[in-house]
Write a structure and sequence with these properties.
Blueprint (H helix, E strand, L loop, with lengths): L133 H4 L50 H17 L2 E6 L2 E5 L4 H15 L19 E5 L2 E3 L4 E3 L14 H20 L12 E7 L5 E4 L6 H5 L4 E7 L1 E7 L8 E5 L4 E4 L7 E4 L2 E2 L5 H7 L5 E7 L2
The protein binds 2-oxoglutaric acid and fe (ii) ion.
The site of 2-oxoglutaric acid has 13 residues, from strand 6, strand 12 and strand 14.
């Protein structure tokens, strides 16, 4: 990653959301969509340390909160809607055309809340449970996944920050059954609708859209079975060493998401890939083999489509980094460039391959660090987005997610929390 302009919860500058331009794609939805604003919070999210420079080379920090200058947008919450969302087709798990959320994105404290064993129906979006890794806890559930354990040490019943403790792991799938929660079964109607949609996709194949040279979206590419598998894999890795934590900066500011790195660890403080996570000395888990296959195939599928359309193909790559983000309600990520990979990788335009699972998200992208000029596409569960070649350095970000938009079947099969799982693969 590079230049994650991931928005931060402490600090000062407004997040500056403004009216977006219209990309004019035939797949765009015309209804106006309000951009998420920060009105709920007195403390606006802030830009990244690098935000003073708008030139590409200087924005080398992935986590940069690449938002417009405050003076350009003193009242971001009053500004006009974002551009229409590019929307090719529903993903396999998304059978209700859920509108992109316009809820505020800044109403989640990025500080961990008290330890809770509440079920995932809770409205609390910050499930930073002190889940112990298998080795730490010495207890395994029947399926081999470490269960939530009691907190070790006395910190007043409050979990330590995920980024300061190897004990705290964010569990994306707290087991409702084990915590006494009520499990809501999807209705027959919803299930049938999902089945019909799956059949349709299987028959027609994924819909591929070239958003710009080097940038492709494959709608509904990840099968529902693979989505379930990936969620379970991420959950298992996420509660172990090097698992999900809440990244932040030395000044205490937090990113509005939970993160886990596979292969190599990306450090928000230094904007570099490092062998161990400085906050807890954990090593990143390995990238599971089947992830590699999926990435390779997604690039191939995209290139077949690009060739048919006489475009320039995207270089293939062997990912050695996967950054897994989990966005709960209020989760977001400011405009940034992914520029912390090696010079060679960047120069060759080796792509970033992004898999989305769970809740829908708005995704902004553009040539400049300016949300007003950014285009917008809706990312749904099962979608794969690839940007490489001449689009490798695009600015991109996630202003908001629609936390309750994930398919019931996926939730039922995985116990995934309301939220969005995103995996971005890169080659260093
Ligand atoms: O969540 C997404 O879709 C984008 C994530 C991203 O840009 C990143 O991890 O660098
Ligand atoms: Fe990124």
């Amino acid at each position: 990653m590079s230049g994650h302009p991931r928005n931060r919860s402490a600090g000062g500058k407004p997040d500056g959301r403004r009216k977006q331009t219209n990309a004019g794609s035939p797949t765009q939805l015309k209804p106006k969509i309000k951009v998420a604003s920060d009105e709920s919070s007195g403390s606006a999210s802030v830009d990244h340390k690098d935000d003073s420079s708008l030139t590409g080379e200087c924005i080398s920090n992935k986590m940069s909160s690449l938002t417009p200058k405050p003076d350009l947008n003193p009242h971001p919450q009053e500004k006009s809607p974002l551009p229409p969302v590019k929307h090719a087709s529903p993903g396999r798990w998304n059978f209700q055309p859920t509108p992109v959320s316009s809820h505020s994105t800044d109403n989640v404290s990025e500080q961990p809340k008290s330890v809770s064993t509440s079920n995932s129906d809770s409205k609390d979006s910050n499930h930073l449970h002190p889940v112990l890794s298998k080795s730490q806890q010495g207890i395994e559930s029947q399926d081999g996944i470490a269960e939530k354990g009691k907190q070790i040490g006395d910190n007043g019943g409050k979990p330590e920050d995920g980024d300061h403790s190897s004990m705290s792991r964010f569990d994306i799938c707290p087991k409702k059954a084990n915590t006494g929660g009520v499990k809501l079964k999807p209705s027959l109607h919803a299930k049938n609708k999902e089945k019909r949609n799956q059949k349709k996709l299987a028959a027609e194949g994924p819909i591929i859209d070239i958003l710009r040279p080097g940038m492709v979206i494959i709608k509904g590419y990840i099968s529902s079975d693979d989505q379930v598998k990936m969620v379970k894999t991420c959950r298992e890795l996420g509660i172990g060493d090097g698992g999900f934590y809440q990244p932040g900066y030395s000044d205490g500011a937090k990113l509005h998401l939970k993160m886990m790195c596979l292969g190599r660890n990306w450090d928000p403080q230094s904007s570099q890939y490092v062998d161990t996570r400085p906050t807890d000395n954990s090593k990143p888990p390995k990238i599971p083999d089947y992830f590699h296959d999926m990435v390779k195939k997604a690039i191939q599928v995209s290139n077949v489509h690009i060739q048919k359309n006489k475009g320039k193909t995207i270089p293939s790559m062997l990912p050695d980094i996967c950054i897994v983000n989990f966005y709960t309600k209020g989760g977001k990520l400011g405009l940034h460039q992914d520029k912390d990979e090696s010079r060679e990788s960047l120069n060759r335009g080796l792509p970033v391959v992004s898999f989305s699972i769970g809740a829908n998200a708005e995704f902004l992208y553009g040539d400049e660090r300016d949300i007003e000029k950014a285009e917008k596409v809706k990312l749904e569960s099962g979608d794969v987005l690839i940007f490489g070649g001449e689009s490798r350095h695009i600015f991109h970000g996630v202003p908001s997610i629609d936390p309750d938009s994930a398919s019931k079947s996926l939730l039922e099969a995985t116990d995934l929390l309301p939220g969005r799982l995103n995996l971005t693969f890169r080659q260093f």
